[in-house]
Amino acid sequence: MSAEVKADALGDEFKGYVLKITGGNDKQGFPMKQGVLKQSRVRLLLSEGHSCYRQRRTGERKRKSVRGCIVGSDLSALSLVVVKQGENDLPDLTDKQIPKRLGPKRASKIRKLFNLTKEDDVRQYVIRREIPAKAEGKKPRTKAPKIQRLVTPLTLQRKRHLRAVKRRASEKARDEAADYAKLLALRVKEKKEKRHEAHIKRRLSSTRRSTTTKA
Question: Cα–Cα distance between 147 and 131 in angstroms, integer?
Answer without folding.
Answer: 19
